[in-house]
Please model this.
Amino acid sequence: MNEPRPSYAPENATPGRRPGRRWSIAGIISGVLAIVLIPVVLGPLGVVLGVVGLVKGDRGLGVAAIIVGILGLVLGLVFSVFVISLTNQM
Model:
């Protein structure tokens, strides 16, 4: 008579995690790396990954990844221009 109740949670769902969190974290890492590495590639990649994380449900980190991706692109380009101008003066 006391049979166990069926679980209605999806089998692949993990409690307490947002599905877009990994995308957002990858976007933040990409945005930070854009400052010192290839800003033209990694900056927009960070923005795209942030948008994917935002669409998949991770609002806070998704927006942060978009902002960090844009900042990484801008700061990376400024840093690159600064380094190139220093090397041309020598």
Q: What stands out?
A: The chain has a mean pLDDT of 86.
